[in-house]
Structure of Dihydropyrimidinase:
Amino acid sequence: MSQSVLIRGGTVVNADCERRADVLCVDGLIAAVGENLTAQAPAGCQVVEAGGQYVLPGGIDPHTHMNFPFMGTRTVDDFYSGTSAALAGGTTSIIDFVIPDPQQPLMDAYQTWRGWAESAAADYGFHVAITWWDESVHRDMGTLVQQEGVNSFKHFMAYKNAIMCDDETLVNSFRRALELGAMPTVHAENGELVYLLQQEVLKMGITGPEGHPLSRPPMVEGEAANRAIAIADVLGVPIYIVHVSCQESADAIARARARGQRVYGEVLAGHLVIDDSVYRHPDFNVAAAHVMSPPFRAKPHQDALWRGLQSGQLHTTATDHCTFCAAQKAAGQGNFAKIPNGCGGVEERMAVIWDAGVNTGRLTPSEFVAITSANTAKLFNLYPRKGLIAVGADADLVVWDPAGSKTLSAKTHHSKNDFNVFEGRTVKGIASHTVSRGQLVWVDGDLRTVPGAGRYIKRPAFGPQFSASALRAQVQAPTPVER
Ligand code: URP
Ligand code: ZN
Ligand code: ZN
Ligand code: ZN
């Protein structure tokens, strides 16, 4: 039987324009966008009255860690609870990470994560981390791109003695990614400096969470961002920097872009609105709950991140949703370096950015769509299937009530975690309805997600940035002198 939803009377917002239109979804796809579609709705069509509300492409969070085994423990949210929380906040797709242990075959790790993700309630894809190098890694990158629809690889420049990638691996992997038409991405922090500073801060007798930001100052991020960008420039490959948290790395990206380099930056909702005072909270549990890397920064860095998004020098927004509860964070009592790194936010991202971005005039609704959905879809080659409201696109939509408000809290969120980094923040502008694969999964506070309803989305290689980069390399190719 055909399943259909008609969203009636709203203002449809895409990244390029907004207009009053109904949206008809049939069998998981957008079947029509236009005025007065009521007559076209099939019998039994569910109707959402969206008068006074916006209709946006569902959010895409390009950076989450569900069911992630990390720092001796595993995240509280699995793929079902994490994607359910996402849907409650208007995010209809995530790109999570397969993270092989050093020496673990990539394909083994990939199959393991695919198995874990079968419970997802929303669509998902994977970046695959390159944590070591040999010929099998070179080969498996090819298999992942050509057969499995992976078009991006992640490199952790931090987490020494764990998943950190040295320069040799960065260079080999970036070169291979270029050959395959896949986007290299980096967590930019100098892992050697972090390691050294952690020992030094501990030696000073600073063992609590306030030591965490001291061991990861902004220049540690700036150095790694500059290095990764320089390597990408020499090799002629585009590069995407995840969780840009400070002026130093935002500047590195802006400088490279001014030179004509294809560099893209991602910003986390948390880094836009939370500052580093949280680490001096007298309650260990509260301070430790904010330990993530890169850490929350002093306020001026937030302004730099907003300016980057406003000017188009930074491109996407994410959460790095990676939840650990108080009992797990307690592993770092007496040594901040042992606190599992990570915070939540997959449910709150859209509302926090709307409230702090659109309600303050920093962003237009269309610019909001660009940085919460369309730009990610374009960079990771999901566009126009995702990130756009148009006939034939996936029916992943959010009806956004600009007048609705709520106070964010661990008491009411849908993550399984016991802490919310946005606790007590009242936001205006919330998802009233979410449609995922053509199904109404969030209806005025009622969450109707189904485990396994999400699908793995294959992402083809050679997105538009790659054809242009290849052409540029050809045009600029050096030639020998004929003598
Ligand atoms: O602290 C964080 N961000 N935890 C997750 C792993 C990562 O660095 O992205
Ligand atoms: Zn990271
Ligand atoms: Zn992460
Ligand atoms: Zn309603």
